[in-house]
Amino acid sequence: MNDVISVAAIQMNCILGNKEENLSKSERLIEDAVKKGAKLIVLPELFNTGYRVEENDLDLAEQIPGETTSWLERICSENNVYIVGCILEKSITNGVIYDTAIVVGPKGLIGSYRKIHLWDKENIRFAKGNEYPIFDLGFARLGVQICYEIGFPEGARILSLKGADIVVYPSAFGKERLYVWDIATRSRALENGIYVIACNRTGKERGKTEFGGFSRIVDPKGKIIVEASSEDEVILAEVNLNDVKNQRREVPYLRDLNQCVIKENLIF
Q1: With contact defined as beta carbons under 8 Å apart, do 45 and 172 qualify?
Q2: Catalytic: which of 25, 86, 115, 149?
Q3: For residue 91, what are the contacts with CB-CB under 8 A and spacing of at least 6?
Q4: Is 199 in the active site?
Q5: pLDDT tens, 210-234?
Q6: 45 an active-site residue?
Q7: Could you tell me the domains of the chain?
Q8: For the chain, which has fewer Cβ within 10 Å, the N-terminal or C-terminal residue?
């Protein structure tokens, strides 16, 4: 396993409901990330459709594998990279849709993650996922959460205990709550000793839903390595997975966690 790898987050605005244009823009930005040496690339939440497409969810949703999965497979194969992208997933149950992240590598689809904790009216749009998978990329063990889930420490903790070195957050996080984004992105990294790749949207949809940007890559100490500042931007950082194990020895939250006591006192 190579301990040092280059990772990238693609911050971008999207054209509402226009898959062709969004995929074209995404590919240009991915090419930029590849030229800069990125091995793992993260795209924002619902990057291929835009976020506020609720009336057209059923028409825009895809099965996995499907159109966008195949598009990602082609890019990953051609460039020998790994990409995480989040799309509307059409369930095999007619009429049911998930907000789903797909993980793709040079050899094809690796797996997917369905958003578990839904934000506000997403509870009307989407069904909830119920699993926290780990994706072994060979060079790193990857966990995925989506947007609003940055504020749920349980998800990142579960993924870390299951072996994640890096947790990524494809997001369409609102500008109004950037104070949450700022604290939570660093907290999830620090409390688990992980790298966090928090990839956010920019732009405004329907004249009122404004996305916050400030995509960032955070190290296991909670330090921001790099942060985006433009509408369409690629940020890139080298991450050293030795820093994960070193930080977990320096501040041993995962070692000292008494899981038995937590399980006994959970109330749902």
Answers
A1: yes
A2: 115
A3: 97, 98, 127
A4: no
A5: 999 999 999 999 999 999 999 999 9
A6: yes
A7: 4-259 (3.60.110.10)
A8: C
